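Researcher: Structure for this, please.
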Amino acid sequence: MHVRELLEPDTSFYCAIDAVTALVSVVGLVALAMISPGGVGARELVGHVVGFFCS
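Model: Predicted structure, token format:
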């Protein structure tokens, strides 16, 4: 068995997790844009990005 064959299932799993995380982030950003009366400004966007990378 080659190393690549051993790593492929893990790579697919992590790609799927990354896709779900990105989707949740986008949904959160859209919800924030809909709820916030002034739209999404730099302050909200920075908080969202920091929360995304710290989770």
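Researcher: Any notable elements?
Model: The radius of gyration is 16 Å. The mean pLDDT is 78.
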